[in-house]
Amino acid sequence: xxxxxxxxxxxxxxxxxxxxxxxxxxxxxxxxxxxxxxxxxxxxxxxxxxxxxxxxxxxxxxxxxxxxxxxxxxxxxxxxxxxxxxxxxxxxxxxxxxxxxxxxxxxxxxxxxxxxxxxxxxxxxxxxxxxxxxxxxxxxxxxxxxxxxxxxxxxxxxxxxxxxxxxxxxxxxxxxxxxxxxxxxxxxxxxxxxxxxxxxxxxxxxxxxxxxxxxxxxxxxxxxxxxxxxxxxxxxxxxxxxxxxxxxxxxxxxxxxxxxxxxxxxxxxxxxxxxxxxxxxxxxxxxxxxxxxxxxxxxxxxxxxxxxxxxxxxxxxxxxxxxxxxxxxxxxxxxxxxxxxxxxxxxxxxxxxxxxxxxxxxxxxxxxxxxxxxxxxxxxxxxxxxxxxxxxxxxxxxxxxxxxxxxxxxxxxxxxxxxxxxxxxxxxxxxxxxxxxxxxxxxxxxxxxxxxxxxxxxxxxxxxxxxxxxxxxxxxxxxxxxxxxxxxxxxxxxxxxxxxxxxxxxxxxxxxxxxxxxxxxxxxxxxxxxxxxxxxxxxxxxxxxxxxxxxxxxxxxxxxxxxxxxxxxxxxxxxxxxxxxxxxxxxxxxxxxxxxxxxxxxxxxxxxxxxxxxxxxxxxxxxxxxxxxxxxxxxxxxxxxxxxxxxx
Length: 648
Known about the structure:
mainly alpha; globular
């Protein structure tokens, strides 16, 4: 599939993300900007919760049943609003924050730039992300479709023995599975990549520009600048489609701007128009939290951290508004209690990440520089962004928006701790919520850094604008030139490197990280060579696990973290001895294994990933010399075998 052929899939993904949730939000009375940012969050939240409920009561995860839930909720919200407001139509929305030509211009700029970035990074829609977590996520979508169960309580059944499945947030997988079922002509990999593109190029900048619309209500130029800035950070959205790969975290972070926008609007931390009535803002924020929580819960606590900081200016304002000492003391004590309580919850919930292996990567000065230049490790410095962030900090303090600088400082502090703090209890307590993983923390830092950079760039533009005549050809030319200069200066070096780095993770040729072009070609023929009920054995470290997502054939080892069921382990370790070992035959029959993909071994030999990839898969070595199998097909030195031992 080419990108041109992927346009219908993209439009379908766009409709699925925005329309179902938009109907519910509109029925509840949401309008204008609130409707736009609430719609995708409502869609994902309802999908993820419905999947859990369906899994518990035994309703199949199929489009007609899911659609009936959205239609039912739309009717319920419409009737509830009618009963509560005694009107069939919402009140006038002209006093609410909405769109403007500058907003649309900024959004179009962001959509175009991010689409181009991701298009070049992925290469072709059908290219797989050749990263550690990609097989789990992509095969997880196939698992949901095959089992008709999208519950977050069922997804780990992909790799765990029956009845041993644990909770794993499946919102991303549920969304992609619905798009995949709605577009059966498109391959699952293409659907996943195109859906991610829509999330990155539409959902993320829409929320980001909405936040800027609230924080800079009188500055149309800030919205246009925000469109450029939304595509100027290597760490997000592109970085989360490269590293990991962290599809679930990526989706959760895409909702963070909407969550923060709803928060600052509800708490009246902004001047000008708000997003909507308080009740609708609360309901929308609840949907954002659910969508994030059932995508990747750590981002919910990141939003909570921003929320606690947002209470500080409210407390300061309330303390200054009263002359009674006991009220002031009560407010301050209450603020301290909230902060301490949140810290305790952060520590308790974050304990799930204590065992994560990720460590620091540099010295304190090096990491501090990266905090502004977002150039972790040996990546090029984003110099322009760093300068704009510094200017933005000054602007925020001078305009009494110091509380937002505190939000940035909190996210930056987590990143500095992640990059420079050695292993130990403090690292666990502070960073366990984010698995102590520096790329995740860097991506979390992007949103507050983005806002500061927009403020900084807008301040520079104001200085320039004072020297030219407004509403003139010169002003238009200077403004257009300024946008071009900003696009060029932010897309060169750091972003160019980020796109090239991501492209290396998606490349498909004889030098691919895991799955090369010969292996891909052989997998594509499996639909014609392997029956629907047969199970394929293969060493997942060599790319065989992608047979499930690419060819819709069940594999014994769908992820690098394979099942520890005894029969699985025995087949992996001793398949080549099946002719002489009856216990292996019993395991083969129990697992349903009938074919083997042999893509070689030691794919990571000599790389930074020090893994002996054949350990645990010794039974899949030297199959050409084993009487347990016979060759069915090959592409170069990559071979598909049929198991012929054990009377099969």
